[in-house]
Write a structure and sequence with these properties.
The protein is mainly α. Helices cover about 35% and strands about 10% of the residues. Strands 1-2 form a two-stranded antiparallel ribbon. A hairpin with a 2-residue loop joins strand 1 and strand 2 (about 45-50). The radius of gyration is 14 Å and the shape is globular.
């Protein structure tokens, strides 16, 4: 789990240096995330649900969100909304907005 988070963090930094591609409609994804009930603002950043804490025992009961920073998640072309359904008729906020 931590290695996946470290990989996502590294990819977001490389995207900020223009070394990796950015999803072209990321602002629409970001707007959909801000309207989501799982949206949380913590530590000056917007997250999909409560983020992982530096002390995991401090918040053992997490909500249904993945905890990822929303802007980084929206900018990643390989990401999908946390509420993604595996069928072809996904009704997550990104797919409803046509940017899933």
């Amino acid at each position: 789990m931590w290695s996946r988070a470290a990989t996502k963090f590294a990819k977001s930094r490389l995207r900020s240096l223009h070394a990796l591609p950015v999803y072209e409609a990321w602002t629409t994804r970001y707007a959909a995330c801000q309207a989501c009930p799982l949206h949380v603002r913590e530590g000056g950043l917007n997250h999909c649900g409560r983020p992982m804490q530096h002390r995991p025992l401090a918040a053992p009961d997490r909500d249904a969100g993945c905890g990822c920073p929303v802007m980084d998640k929206a900018r990643d072309p390989d990401e999908h909304c946390h509420l993604h359904e595996d069928d072809s008729d996904c009704t997550c906020p990104w797919c409803r907005a046509g940017v899933g």
